[in-house]
Amino acid sequence: MDETSPTGEELLAALAALASPHRLRIIAALAEGRSYVSELARRLQMNRPLLYMHLQRLEAAGLVAGTLETAADGSSVKWFEVVPFALSLTPATVAAAVPTLAAGGSGKEEK
Q: What pTM did the predictor assign?
């Protein structure tokens, strides 16, 4: 997400992705530098399937990016890093985003 005004869908995706303590912890950990899933799971004391689920949500919102790389032993390792973003949430930001929403919103509310 860049510094331009987000669309309604982008704003909803970012807010939903950031509305989780786990995902905030992941962003904070990745702010220190890129990491691969196993190492990140150990640092955050989170199981890998749960971590992957949260990383997928953050990646879909454009807040983190994953890159598959081949290690020296030939195995594949997926590295994640934070995508630089700035989110300014003001009444004007919301007002500018609302007209871009599909009728009735996205319908993809988090449960």
A: 0.81
